[in-house]
Protein 1
Amino acid sequence: MDKKLKILLWKPGVYDMTRGELPTIGLSILATSAINAGHEAVVADHHFSPPPEDKAEEAILDLLDEHKPDILGISAVSYEWTMPRVQAALNAAKERNIQVWLGGPQAVAYSDKLVEDDRLTKIVIGEADGRFNKILEAEEKIIHLGRSPSFDRPTFTAMIDHEELTTYPLFVSRGCHYNCTFCAATKVFGNRWRARELSPELWDEIDQIAVNHPKCKTISIIDDAFTQDMDHAKNFLKEYLRRGYPYQVSVFNVRADYLDEEILLLLKKTGVETLAVGIESADPEVFRMLRKGEKLETIETAIRLIQKAGLVPWLNMVIGLPGDNIEAHRRSLDWVLQFDQPRVIQWNIFSPFRGTMAYDYFVKTGDIEDGFTPPFWGRYEQLPDDGMFDAADFSREEKSLAQLEAFLKCNVPIIILSDKKVRALCKEHGMWDLYEEWRKNAPIKEFLENTVPNKVEKGQESISQEDYNSLMAEFVNDNQYPTDPFVYKTVSP
Ligand code: SF4
């Protein structure tokens, strides 16, 4: 090695409802590879640990001045790429002769267009584990790394504010061998499922959490398809339990067709409380078009199995997928309503990722143009979302109202944070009866008492103390609310 390089790895981050949860693992995996190659790496993850929003641009420019890196590595999604602070950082890097490497979803989706940008030195697609030198030495601008033969442990200690980490993201496998039409994950991690060896290296990574991240309370298994080999998942969980780790486990997502009683029991023993299952749409035609490779009946059986095991199924639903419209959405909604409590139902509006079949579908229908960048993913206090884009069969407004109707019928408490907007929409669109039912049945009290303070602490929700006190007084203490939706009652604490 000729020279020890200084590498600054940056996640710009957005001020949305997911900030502050998990650090971006890809940056810390690249940091490992850079450090192993004899260089110096610092990770600034502004999604995990964001500066004040009005100082975000200044923060990255200050970091460039402070660290004087030879290389600025950026991991960005498409929306982040359009943000002024990212463009300002790119311009500043060019002025200072700093190499810029871009990775993450934006690099995967837009390498053909980004290659023209002379501020970028390298566009990196694929897994970075052990690949720092390969990227450094590559002569081409677009580098297709493909799948890595190894799983590097992430060096989260290289991350600014790493001592604040409370949830540790862990890969036990990568990839998924399905190819759902809407899925961005397989574009990033590929279509081959790969197990991580349950080796001393993996257990040592977990052992080191107590040393490096003393505030950590949870391990989050972030695999795309953790249970795709059930024996592997079970062996991991059994050994995890045998070793008696103190961390509660959470699992990002499982496929309904890769579950059985034994694995659910093991998950419960590790502290898993809710288990997310991707359904997306339960309308038979929309579901067929997703090409998920499983049946709705299998999902139904799995949800009941999860409930029987004493876990709460978290049903991920999406509005506005190919083939969806208001009638199909209502069929989907009726299907999920067949499940009694306990269950959590999450309704998101479809955000197309370039390179997927679902994205191509909407380009072909003329509903979006190639290059469409999904707008900012909303904040809780803005729900329902704005509908993403107008489709011939499902307008933005229809999608937004469909989301609101779904929240109300499924008794989702989160819309209490945008209560003024919700009341106005319900009044205007004939949903006031639904609102009143929701008001009676949704677990608003528990949500305000237990969930909101945590979200405020993480900055995912910017409710003021005064508004929070008003909501508590209005919805928890005296159980009253105004019947006129255009008048927002404020109650002094
Ligand atoms: S099962 Fe999940 S990870 Fe696999 S392709 Fe489908 S959505 Fe993507």
Note: The chain has 19 helices and 14 strands.
Protein 2
Amino acid sequence: MKLAMIGFGQAGGKIVDRFLDYDDRTGSGIVRAAIAVNSAKADLIGLDNIPQENRVLIGQARVKGHGVGADNELGAEVAEEDIDEVQNAIDQIPTHEVDAFLIVSGMGGGTGSGGAPVLAKHLKRIYTIPVYGLGVLPGTDEGGIYTLNAARSFQTFVREVDNLLVFDNDSWRQTGESVEGGYEQINEEIVRRFGILFGAGEVGDGQEVAESVVDSSEIINTLSGGGVSTVGFASEEVELNSGGGLLSRFTGDDGGGADDDLDAANTTNRITSLVRKAALGRLTLPCEIEGTERALLVLSGPSEYLNRKGIERGRKWLEEETGSMEVRGGDFPREEPEVAAAILLSGVTNVPRIKRLQQVAIEAQDNIDDIQQESEENLEELVEDDEDELEPLF
Ligand SMILES: Nc1nc2c(ncn2[C@@H]2O[C@H](COP(=O)(O)OP(=O)(O)O)[C@@H](O)[C@H]2O)c(=O)[nH]1
Ligand SMILES: [Mg+2]
């Protein structure tokens, strides 16, 4: 499917920048337009692939291009004040050629954390196409303010978008690596997973049409209904059959019927085991997959390595594991030397990380309430004291 991607803040901009690179490398054609929005000029300059005219600096009057620090309330304010500048950039893209918006943002900082939900609300009001969010949660070692920002932004973001796809930096941290080097790998993982998923609905004219190809509406239907989504992924290297794969099977060049049966069984087994690995391995947001509302299974690879039986078995297995009545599945033929299973789990309910974040948000709210309560009590005491003092007069 074709997306208009808007990277909000530093992480958001960098990830959208990587999506453009991915599109270039793989010819997947999912990025119809790419925009970066930031209050920090240096972050916009640091991008490689997003066109200069699509880099929007907001909040200049307030922070003079220096960013908002990790102040996400200020981030939300400057986004609201300068929403017209963002809209001007969006006006330049042919939205009639776009299937959905994808707003990408790190949720622990200031600009993206505060601004992404503001933009989502704005776009929802103006456009009828879906507005999705890709929210990146901070590592727990980043510190309290990042967690608190994420807790607050998450609640707002999930409410404003049609679906919030989540990637949790915390479960993807690699030890013994510099943070920057670590982010590069993490960002590559993000674009690969979401790239295959969104790319599935974008089979070009020249490409082979698969037996049961996934299309954009299946992705949109899986994401409809809202909530939080996570993505599982597993792949296995295979040899590209340069001799034209299918043809040699029809002509019987590669042996007899017994071999073909063996091939078919291997293909089916490879697919079902990849589906299990993808669902039970590391998800972009770790969670219990049981209780998932809707799911989409995408099997990508050279078409001679894909078959309907494997995908159907994988789909059935996912239905059992998730308890969902709405599991879609299909293929995404690509001439890459690997078979990959990407699984979109939409409307997940049992997510420990989110429960902890909600707790943080509640505690922060309680603290604010406590402080207010305290000041109210102080006020009352003052008034009572006044009354005490006043009493003798009467
Ligand atoms: N995955 C990923 N996360 C990042 C990257 N850069 C920053 N982050 C995360 O995003 C959060 C927000 O940082 P940043 O995007 O710089 O904040 P902002 O510019 O104020 O929106 C941080 O707390 C990190 O958890 C990146 O390149 N990749
Ligand atoms: Mg930053």
Note: Residues 9-11, 14, 106, 108-113, 136, 138-139, 142, 146, 169, 183, 186-187 surround guanosine-5'-diphosphate (ligand 1) (CB under 6 Å).
Protein 3
Amino acid sequence: MSNGSNLDFKGRVAIVTGAGGGLGRQHALALATRGAKVVVNDLGGARDGSGGSVSAAQAVVDEIKAAGGEAIANGASVTDFEAVQAMVKEAVDAWGRVDILVNNAGILRDKSFAKMDLADFRLVVDVHLMGAVNCTKAVWALMNEQKYGRIVMTTSSSGLYGNFGQSNYGAAKLALVGLMQTLSIEGAKNDIRVNCLAPTAATRMTEDLFPKEMLEAFRPEAVVPAMLVLAAQDAPNRTILCAGAGTFEAAHITLTQGAWLGIEADTPEQLAARLSEVTDREGEAVPQSGAAQGANEVAKGMANAKRG
Ligand SMILES: NC(=O)c1ccc[n+]([C@@H]2O[C@H](COP(=O)([O-])OP(=O)(O)OC[C@H]3O[C@@H](n4cnc5c(N)ncnc54)[C@H](O)[C@@H]3O)[C@@H](O)[C@H]2O)c1
């Protein structure tokens, strides 16, 4: 497998979901330009997830082929596990492996929580969270056998930090960070690296949010470098990379130093009195796992018990 330069994808096989337009299309084009064979998946529906046609994916495949690349169009909905499995089989039958999965497909059903229908909540969770779970599950055994895999989950600032009217979308997007946290641990022994991308770009998903003068700065191409770095052979593992308008940042789920208060009758009062100390960000860290955080709490408790 030729990978002279880290961001050379020659010989790699990639699946990009939701690649008929917007960010996914740019991801697929960039991977193909850099040598990857790409499955361009897209349901081809409207922004709210209604309808569907493979023509959006086919147009991107035509573009890749016209530029001398290799690509296959696939119209599966990421919510349909059997169709997703068939998509993975199609890639393996054609090219023998799947190295990269970019979980990018998504929809919006925005409304304030008070007005939101639970059906719209479930659908958004189904497409973003279960869609990524389905695609990841369909490549997971293969990537473990290959002892190689790069998976990018597309999260969002709406999940990381919240946005009015996006409780369904934000919950689904932060769930992908949770999925990444565990899969990056489980995949490490077989060189499967799992990361999150939090993009900001002017696409049909955000067309009503960006003022006209910002459209150029927020073109989807500006997000692509972050995807390429997360999909590369030298990718990090367990990183949340934010990208938009040429700016790149990392988001972390940190833990403060906190304070040991014991388990006493007046601990609630102690906690209320010392809340600013517990939440103080000086010296905060990112635990290596959930278990590491638990171990840290036990260690503090034991150290303080000894002292007492
Ligand atoms: N544009 C932004 O600023 C922004 C910000 C944060 C996160 N995101 C995320 O980036 C990803 C791409 O969004 P975009 O802005 O390019 O929007 P987009 O609407 O242009 O692209 C989403 C694509 O996913 C496809 N899709 C929807 N449901 C599908 C399904 N069930 N199966 C297969 N394909 C399906 C759509 O047909 C569409 O082509 C999404 O996950 C989105 O949530 C975008």
Note: Strands lie at 13-16, 37-41, 71-74, 100-103, 149-154, 192-199, 240-244, 247-251.
